[in-house]
Amino acid sequence: MDEFMLIFRHEDGKKIASPEQMQIWMKATMDWIGGIAAQNKFVLGNGLLFDDARVVHHNKMVTNGPFGEIKETLGGYIIVKAESADEAASFAKDCPILGGEGNTVEVRKIIRGEDMH
Amino acid sequence: MFRTEFSRISAVLCKHFGIEHIELAEDIASETFLLAMETWSYKGIPENPTAWLYVVAKNKAKNYFARAHMFREKIMPELKQTTDVPAIELDLSDQNISDSLLQMLFAICHPAIPTEAQIGLALRILCGFGIDEIAHAFLSNKETINKRLFRAREKLRAEKVPIEMPETAEIPQRLNAVLTTLYLLYNEGYYSESQDAVIREELCIEAIRLTKLLLNNPLTNTPAANALMALMCLHASRLPARKDENGALILYQDQDESLWNKELISEGAYHLHIASQGRTLSRYHLEATIAWWHTIKEDTAEKWDNILQLYNRLLQLEYSPVAALNRTFALSKVKGNAAALPEAEKLGLAGNPYYHTLLGELYQGIDNQQALQHLQQALHLSKTQPEKQTIQQKIDHLPIT
């Protein structure tokens, strides 16, 4: 069994939806994660705040942002256990953020010691 | 009285002699009670039975050391001048008793001891259970339990586990281990497959009593300990309503809520309130809050919505098959059987009777043939008579089309 990171890319929900709508999305996300956890396939997860973000560039210059104004912004991730990338992708298919057009969930296998050489 | 006093005497003796004499402490406590039962049965119970027990225990301890002293005198006369009879003055004040009990609890729940053995030792030393009672509770035999306890005592001796409170910095981690053991001890009683209802209930009561020890000490009176206490009280409140006169299990939805113990419910709510002060959110918090929602018998959308969200979080913290099944049941209450079925099918618990009972319920009205097959599978996998009866009733009530 390998571990995969499911990376959510979407714009900042607060900019396009009411707090009530956010609440509904949050619940739907928790139900989705709960379904994975009920199969004992959930490892961990975090949502990422769009407020007060920084980007540090190669010359150590610090800029504000990202501001979550484009669909490609990283909004959060979870790590799941799965037999294959396809199984991990099948979890991702039910992710509620995919209800927003243009949003994506990227599926990436996590490197283990033996994958390094 | 037997259980409480036995644990007090053995904890104080153990503290006094040190962990290497753990069996001696148990033996003296046992002998004291044996003598009490023999004497009291024909002389009647003394005016102050507790004081009587303490005097006998003290004398037995003294005699033991006098004998040990004699032995040393004869075998090693050259040591005569140094081996004064050790002044054995047992401190049986309330303070020392409760300190000793708490310290013993920490010693027994030492990470070096396997959890199953911790529970066994706690039952023997802190709850005064006999070996056959422990064997009964674990659905095991005396020999296995004796071996398990023997190995655990050896380990305590080998590791030189001190009977004292851990360093303050160590307490949070060690306390987690203690809470786990108490939680399992409680579950052993609440969910045990043992047929003996009396023993099962006693396990629950003992777990509550030992958790109270933690709440009585400021160092261990933490939000998580309160949450565990809340969980125990709230579950225990339903014990009187869980069994019919034949010992068959009564399912939650069929229970007579007038039999629920109101006092325990409010005690549970009180501890849950204390537990919520602070920033920790343990699995006990989540499970206690779920148990609290269950004290509202009426099915409301709000109730099941909250229970579902709590199970979602509980499973993220710690997976267990029971939580996975209960979460799926809550999902069916919120979103309907049709929505819950595909998630139930994915749980991967085909060897678990409760999994098939759940699927049997969810398929009802959707595919009764499937429902029947799952209930029959559940009947086949289930281990106890009361459970088999409950499942058989479900099969009998299934409308076959």
From TrEMBL, chain A:
Annotated InterPro entries: Dimeric_a/b-barrel, YCII
All copies of domain YCII-related, residue ranges: 10-110
Domain of life according to the entry: Bacteria
Family, as annotated: Belongs to the YciI family.
Protein name, entry field: Transcription initiation protein
Record organism: Chitinophaga varians
Source organism phylogeny: Bacteria, Pseudomonadati, Bacteroidota, Chitinophagia, Chitinophagales
